[in-house]
Specification:
alpha+beta; Double Stranded RNA Binding Domain; Antitoxin HicB; TTHA1013/TTHA0281-like
Length: 124
């Protein structure tokens, strides 16, 4: 099954949809219409059924928006790393207390967590 790439970008009040393989373009009023309009255009252009091909649609966002999106991805990565580090530190703290002879109930109280969570941490 053939796959057709389409690039979508904002152009005034519309979304401009370019399909390079067909050297053609169409437009949509909203992003929610892009897939339907693209599929209809390709099927009409090739005179084939709308389910006889696949599409790879990518939206080109303005540079300023791309910068914000990139910043979000970096922040989420940093957050995931921080969560991983925090989990490792919780586990290390619980194991250290366990090595000092505390019960999991006391570990839970000392770390302000449930005794069930303390058990999980010392078992890691």
């Amino acid at each position: 099954m053939d796959t057709y790439a389409a690039t979508v970008r904002r152009d005034g009040r519309f979304w401009y949809i370019e399909i390079p393989a067909l050297e053609g373009a169409t437009q949509a009023r909203s992003l929610s219409e892009v897939e339907e309009m693209t599929r209809d255009y390709i099927a009409s252009f090739l005179e084939v059924a709308e389910d006889s091909f696949e599409m790879d649609i990518s939206v080109e966002l303005p540079a300023a928006v791309q910068e914000h999106v990139a910043a979000v991805h970096l922040a989420r990565h940093a957050e995931a790393m921080a969560r991983s580090r925090a989990a490792a530190e919780w586990s290390a703290a619980a194991r250290e207390l366990r090595n000092q002879g505390l019960t999991v109930r006391d570990i839970g109280l000392a770390l302000h967590i449930s005794h069930q969570r303390a058990q999980q941490l010392v078992s890691q």
